[in-house]
Structure to design on (532 residues):
């Protein structure tokens, strides 16, 4: 059975929730069962954001994750909060331009990518989340690149469609980052 | 089936109402259900419907009374504190036998409480939060797909019996996105409403919509009619999901989001050789008593899990009427029971039951 339980966490404004929604949308386009649950509680008012995404070819059980198969973190507090959630053998993708410490786990795969710096160099800092997603997708194969592009087309308003080639470039940069 | 969409529970409820032919929406924003209002504000003008952001929840429920009196399909939505404000109106709607749909995306209380998910409004919904002997049909979806399907059904039930139906979800259901597959066309029977106040055109007597009956003999007769209607609804409109209950060591009763968590627990427990069953009331009123009675003697014990201090557990106990042990595990304040906590509780109960 294909199953990815993904937590994406960081600050508000980094595109945490939209990254999760894109992933879920692409999963749906790949005929998977999906759920996306955003944090909407008081922590959000404090500026942090996270979401739970489940993509599976089986039934989605609880949409609320108490553990995960993978994690994307875009700030230090999120690493502290969620690194223990990842199951042994799982993966963590870290934006190392924003997270100022190392992951303490040695039973999981850790990928450090200076995504925000790379995105800034590309000329648009908001693509950092897409770069990290690219790495997650390359490591898990949970969605296809084609469905990700289609998800962008379906979820972005037409006035933003001109950004899609850039977003795909960011996605591929993440996929191929070593 | 028709179109597949990735939607929030709140949006699916709003879309369902429009598909069910609802053209009047009156509400007042409150987290975690405001997406319903947003959706309606956007979509109602496109279908020649009416969206009004009322000046208060009390105003909104009385607008519902008005639109329902004229025979319209009408919706109001809110979350716990707002639903408390609507209780007087709900009692009047019950007294006047008006069909209407109310959505409560429950948050944690009491008082203003918090904005996170809870199930603390169960008593208010199923036992009657307003005054007098009345009932509402209360439906509790556990997925976005079910939120859509039950909302359409809520309108049909409301019209069929001239009763208020409530969709009761929690913040998780409202906020989460899942794939929802819409039917090409809804099975919206058109219910004749000869009782509605639509103007006599001088061809018939006035239709009077009221809940006041000063004469006690008349009022008792009205009440007996209501009770007969509620009995008929109990017989015809009970909905329940029974899962994995044959030969279960323990049967868990849970509804809405919590039932989803329990389904994960069932899988984990299976690996330890513990067979956990689930009875998920889909209609909270009428309560699926018969499902509990059918399995009363099967497990070593029952466990009710809720995001409350223990409300539905009372109906589980009433249904079983002493035939088996009923335990309870609950979290409050917006805390969601973790799978591991539920499993610990199951292990503890089974250890003591041996």
């Amino acid at each position: 059975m294909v199953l990815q339980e993904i937590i994406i966490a960081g600050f508000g404004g980094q595109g945490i929730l939209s990254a999760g929604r894109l992933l879920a949308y692409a999963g749906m386009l790949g005929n998977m069962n999906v759920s996306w649950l955003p944090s909407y509680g008081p922590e959000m008012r404090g500026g942090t954001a996270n979401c739970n995404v489940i993509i599976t070819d089986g039934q989605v059980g609880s949409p609320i994750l108490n553990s995960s198969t993978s994690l994307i973190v875009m700030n230090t507090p999120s690493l502290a909060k969620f690194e223990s959630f990842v199951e042994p053998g799982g993966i963590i993708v870290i934006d190392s331009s924003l997270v100022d410490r190392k992951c303490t786990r040695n039973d999981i795969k850790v990928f450090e990518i200076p995504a925000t710096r790379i995105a800034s160099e590309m000329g648009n800092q908001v693509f950092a989340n897409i770069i990290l997603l690219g790495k997650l997708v390359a490591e898990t194969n949970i969605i296809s690149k084609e469905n990700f592009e289609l998800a962008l087309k379906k979820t972005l308003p037409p006035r933003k469609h001109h950004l899609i080639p850039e977003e795909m470039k960011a996605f591929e940069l993440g996929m191929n980052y070593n | 089936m028709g179109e597949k969409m990735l939607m929030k529970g709140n949006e699916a409820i709003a879309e369902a109402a429009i598909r069910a032919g609802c053209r009047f929406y009156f509400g007042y924003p409150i987290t975690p259900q405001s997406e319903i209002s947003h959706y309606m504000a956007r979509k109602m003008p496109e279908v020649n419907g009416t969206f009004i952001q009322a000046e208060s929840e009390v105003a909104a429920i009385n607008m519902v009374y008005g639109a329902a009196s004229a025979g319209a399909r009408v919706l109001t939505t809110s979350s716990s504190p707002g639903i408390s404000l609507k209780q007087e109106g709900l009692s009047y709607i019950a007294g006047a036998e008006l069909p209407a749909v109310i959505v409560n995306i429950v948050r944690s209380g009491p008082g203003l409480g918090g904005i996170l998910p809870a199930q603390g409004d169960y008593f208010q919904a199923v036992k009657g939060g307003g005054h007098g002997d009345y009932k509402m049909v209360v439906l509790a979806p556990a997925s976005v797909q079910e939120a859509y399907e039950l909302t359409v059904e809520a309108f049909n039930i409301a019209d069929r019996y001239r009763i208020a139906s409530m969709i009761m979800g929690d913040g998780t259901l409202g906020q989460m996105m899942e794939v929802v597959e819409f039917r090409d066309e809804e099975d919206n029977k058109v219910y004749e409403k000869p009782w509605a106040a639509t103007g006599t055109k001088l061809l018939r007597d006035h239709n009077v919509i009221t809940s006041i009956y000063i004469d006690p003999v008349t009022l008792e007769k009205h009440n007996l009619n209501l009770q007969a209607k509620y009995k008929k609804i109990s017989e015809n409109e009970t909905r329940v999901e029974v899962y994995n209950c044959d030969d279960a060591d323990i049967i868990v009763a849970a509804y809405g989001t919590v039932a989803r968590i329990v389904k994960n627990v069932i899988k984990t427990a299976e690996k330890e050789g513990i067979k956990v069953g689930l009875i998920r009331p889909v209609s909270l009123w009428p309560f699926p008593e018969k499902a509990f009675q059918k399995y009363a003697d099967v497990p070593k014990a029952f466990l009710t899990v809720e995001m409350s201090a223990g409300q539905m557990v009372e109906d589980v106990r009433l249904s079983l009427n002493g035939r088996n042990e009923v335990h309870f595990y609950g979290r409050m304040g917006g805390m969601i029971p973790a799978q591991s906590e539920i499993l610990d509780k199951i292990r503890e109960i089974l250890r003591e039951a041996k």
